[in-house]
Design a protein that fits this description.
Helix content: 55-70%
Largest sheet: none
Shape: elongated
Distance between the termini: 114 Å
Structural class: mainly alpha
Number of helices: 13
Length: about 325
């Protein structure tokens, strides 16, 4: 851009004019000829040239002049070969990610269906009758012991009522072996209950109730029949075997119970029931092995109360 000389009319005083001595026209005109030309000069026109774009006021002229045009360069042969080589693997990864997302949705749907199935089983009180594979999945719940105990108690009541109706519908005596065989179907589920967290106390009570349901059947004819007496004794022997394992688990997991187990109190309860059954129906033994384990625990508790060794809780 050409340099424009400063005008005298901008920041300087007017040109010198001699007022003391009169000057002729020629001298003043000659003096004015030395004044610079303040008219704006036009840039020379160059033919066959593009017009010069002037930056507008307020725009960043430096950025406009310094920004290079965007040029997309073709990748070099090595980069192009690498991209072509990994493209099949990238496509496979995308397909696998899509399959994983689809399978995740399928798994979530199956989980929802399983929860619905478990809720349907619990609503109808059928947990005690489900296959072992389904039972193992349902027992992962923290309240599985309470739910299973409730279902077993309900099923026990239904079986007891069905046996009563069957007995009432017959004119002859129903053998005790029919009762024992029917009630014994609950023993495997009670054993499974004792293996669950907080399950041994619930299994302990269910075994006592199961024996009581058998005692409500038979009548005088069944109590005096040799075959019925044998069937009843065999059934109580099976109950005692199951009860021994339940008692031992309950003693081992005493810390799981919300309330301490006073073993001596249950010993007295079983002894009292056994004495009644001995005089009522002639049952000679009532949980003998279980009572032996419990009495031993009571003795350990008494020794612990004296400061030497502690076992179970002694009944107050």
């Amino acid at each position: 851009m050409p340099i424009r000389p400063n005008s005298f009319t901008d920041h300087q005083s007017p040109p010198y004019k001699d007022t003391q001595y009169a000057s002729t026209y020629n001298s003043q005109d000659r003096l004015g000829s030395y004044r610079p030309n303040t008219a704006p000069q036009q840039e020379p026109t160059h033919y066959n040239a593009l017009p010069i774009q002037r930056p507008q006021e307020g725009s960043n002229s430096a950025t406009a002049h310094n920004t290079p045009p965007a040029v997309t360069q073709a990748p070099d042969p090595l980069t192009r070969a690498f991209n072509e080589a990994v493209r099949p693997y990238l496509d496979k990864i995308e397909r696998l990610e899509a399959e994983i997302e689809e399978k995740t949705l399928d798994i979530q749907q199956l989980e929802d269906e399983r929860q619905d199935m478990h809720a349907w089983i619990d609503k109808r009180g059928l947990r005690a009758d489900v296959p072992p594979s389904i039972a193992a999945a349902m027992n992962n719940d923290s309240t599985s012991a309470q739910t299973l105990a409730h279902h077993l108690d309900r099923k026990m009541t239904i079986l007891n009522h069905d046996l009563h109706r069957l007995q009432d519908s017959l004119s002859s005596h129903l053998p005790t072996s029919t009762f024992t065989t029917t009630l014994a179907t609950l023993l495997p589920a009670i054993e499974s209950l004792s293996n669950l967290p907080h399950g041994p106390p619930l299994a302990f009570e269910l075994l006592i109730k199961l024996g009581g349901n058998l005692n409500s059947h038979g009548g005088e004819e069944g109590y005096n029949n040799e075959g019925d007496i044998t069937s009843r004794a065999e059934f109580y022997s099976r109950l005692d075997e199951t009860m021994v394992d339940v008692v031992r688990r309950r003693l081992e997991r005493g810390a799981e119970e919300e309330q301490p187990w006073y073993v001596g109190k249950d010993v007295k309860r079983l002894e009292k029931t056994g004495g009644f059954l001995r005089s009522k129906i002639g049952l000679q033994t009532y949980f003998p092995r279980s009572l032996e384990v419990m009495r031993y625990e009571v003795k350990r508790g008494e020794v612990g109360a004296n400061g030497r060794h502690g076992g179970g809780h002694v009944s107050p």
